[in-house]
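Human: Here is a favour to ask of a fellow structure person. Comparing notes only helps if you start from a blank page. Give me a protein, with the fold worked out from its sequence. Please set it down just below, with no commentary around it:

Assistant:
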Amino acid sequence: MEFKVKLIEKYIVKEIFNNFVLSLLAFNLVLMMERILKFSMLLSGVGATLMDFAGIIVLIQPQLFLLTIPMSLMAAVLFTYGRLKSDNELTILRTSGMSFVSISRPVFAFGILCFLLSLFNSFYLGPETAKELRTKITELITTKSPRAIREGNFYSLFKDVVILVKKKPSEDTLNEIFIYDKRDPARPCTIFAKEGKISVYAGTKIGFNLKEGEVYITDETDITKITFANYNMILTMTPQVNSQISELTPFEVLKRAKETAGEERVQVFLEFHRRLALPLIVLILSSLAPSIAFLSKKTGRLGELSLAMVVFLLYYSSLIYFEKLARTGKLPHYVSGWLPLTALLIFTSIFFIKALRR
């Protein structure tokens, strides 16, 4: 009998694992579309290749895992037990003497594994890949920006600067250059140069060494003309990738929170609570999902997926709502950070007790 139980548990774990992997791929694909669009708009202007985008997609994944691992676990459990119920296998297991806890034991074991994976992702993998993502984007911008400037095309990746080059003899050499610079709105300037060279500096700074040209500076009433033999212009690219908090471990986030004040302090504390609460939700869902699967009627895969999405969306919506209350000072940050998880825990306990008594 013990051998048969272990065989059944192995069978259930295998099916949960297969459904979990498929769900994880699907949820990650959906959630990363917005980020891919943002990065494609940023990097297409610097001539990033398909392999560059593939590397960025890989580095994005750990940041999504905090959300998609709990969602995938719940969907996988509902898929698995929903299929067992539709094939009457659950009925056979119950009539053979197996209790709800015994049948759900594979979920608890798999849930602990997912919890440890989420914890590792929150404390180490996520911050490390966030650092690597920022480094890769910076490297792509600084190394490939010169290649993106093409003859006869307006180049506008630099904020408030437009560049037009008539000829480009080599990768870093430009001829007949036009630059419109409105970084100072009160005194925009137009630059014409016969030739120039591009230099790449540390960070996201690109230098233009211009030769034999003129600068026209305009204000409200006058135009000033300056003729030059050599003119050095340094522009800073703005990747708009805010990775400072995501690059920190929860302990570093807590340390940062103690060094800040006001609204920023609340925001950092909320990030700390989220880093701890999202892995813990995996453990709660590993009890909630089999309870719902046992108590619900046969709904099919679409119904099970919808149920999983509804539960997680309700949790995440309440999390965002209470975080907004904390930012406006209506609730303490620790209440906002943990109240949705506490509510989900109570909800799970009710369903778990009902499933035990059934």
Remarks:
- Helices lie at 2-43, 50-86, 89-95, 100-148, 250-259, 262-295, 300-327, 333-357.
